[in-house]
Amino acid sequence: MNEITNGLQALVARGFQFAHPRDANGGLVAVVGIRVHRGVFDILQLFGETDADAARIPGDEPDVLFPSKVLWRTTGPAREVINDLLALSEPAPELGAQPKGCWLPAHAGRSTWLAASA
Predict the structure, then answer these.
(1) Which of 104, 30, 17, 32 is nearest to 112 (CA)?
(2) Backbone dihedral region of 40: left (phi > 0), alpha (psi from -120 to 50 degrees) or beta?
(3) Is the predicted pLDDT of residue 92 greater than 90, yes or no?
(4) For residues 82 and 42, is the Cβ–Cβ distance under 8 A?
(5) Average pLDDT, the chain
(6) Burial class (CB in 10 A: 0-12, 13-18, 19+), 59
(7) What percent of the chain has pLDDT over 70?
(8) Euclidean distance between CA atoms 55 and 84, whole angstroms
């Protein structure tokens, strides 16, 4: 197995859940992983082997894919971004509001994160 696959398996072991958004024709747009814990969202977006983004977002952020506030972010090749995300320290237990929501399937193989309202 390659480093990216190993990294994705390590993220799954840490509680990341993955969605695979697709375009209108059914083509894979990205691999998106999210973990909700300790008052934050940790999110990974893989667009290709050389194009990835990861971020830690406050739990009260209503749009995790286009956040207005970011606590930490990195971009670059997938292998490096995954390694940076795996090396990120755990947040303090009371960092912020406990995020709530879920992935919902949408049309044409798409998924979207639905933040729960208060």
Answers:
(1) 104
(2) beta
(3) no
(4) no
(5) 83
(6) buried
(7) 77
(8) 10
